[in-house]
Design goal:
The chain is mainly alpha-helical. The chain contains 7 helices and no strands. It has one domain.
C-alpha cells in the first residue's frame, strides 16, 4: 500500500499544464474599449454582431487561421484582416461582392469605421430597453387583458373540421 501511494505521489502530473499546441502570436496591442484600434472580441460583437462573435469564441483556431491567411494573401495588417474576416463571417455574399468591387472598380471599402452600437451607444441602449418593455411587459399584459389567445379551432378554420 505504501508503495502504491509513493508511486502515485512521485508521478510527474501537471494538473495546470499549458496547452500542447503553440498559439499564434497576436500583434494587436491592447487598447481602450470602443477605440478605433480595438481588436477585442467585444469589438467584434458590437461591429458585426453575434455570428462573427460566436465564430471567434467557439472556434478560435479556425478564426486565427483565417485571419492569418488573409493577412498573408492580401498584405494587410492584423486589425484590417480581423475586421474584414469579421464582416466576411457575418455577410459572406456581401463580402464577396465588396472584394470584386475592389478588384474590378478600384473602390476601397473601409471596414474600420464604427457601425451600429459603436456609432450610437445611447440610442442603442434606449432602443433595447424599449423593445424589451414592449415585447416582454406591455404586449403580454395587453393580450391577457383582452382575454388571451384562444387556440380552439373555429368554424372558419381553413384546414377543415377536426372531427
Amino acid at each position: 500500500m505504501k508503495l502504491l501511494v509513493a508511486l502515485v505521489l512521485a508521478a510527474p502530473v501537471q494538473p495546470f499544464a499549458p496547452p500542447t499546441r503553440p498559439l499564434a502570436t497576436r500583434q494587436v496591442k491592447q487598447s481602450a474599449f470602443l477605440d478605433d484600434d480595438d481588436g477585442s472580441i467585444w469589438d467584434t460583437l458590437l461591429r458585426n454582431g453575434p455570428i462573427s462573435f460566436g465564430i471567434r469564441v467557439a472556434r478560435p483556431d479556425f478564426y486565427e487561421e483565417t485571419v492569418v491567411t488573409y493577412m498573408e494573401t492580401k498584405g494587410v495588417d492584423r486589425l484590417e484582416a480581423q475586421r474584414r474576416m469579421d464582416f466576411m463571417f457575418n455577410d459572406p455574399n456581401g463580402f464577396g461582392v465588396n472584394e470584386l468591387r475592389e478588384e474590378q472598380m478600384g473602390e476601397k471599402i473601409n471596414y474600420n469605421i464604427k457601425s451600429g452600437v459603436q456609432n450610437r451607444p445611447v440610442f442603442s441602449a434606449f432602443w433595447a430597453a424599449w423593445c424589451f418593455y414592449f415585447f416582454f411587459i406591455f404586449l403580454p399584459a395587453r393580450v391577457s387583458e383582452l382575454g388571451g389567445i384562444d387556440f380552439t379551432p373555429s368554424k372558419f378554420d381553413i384546414m377543415g373540421p377536426y372531427n
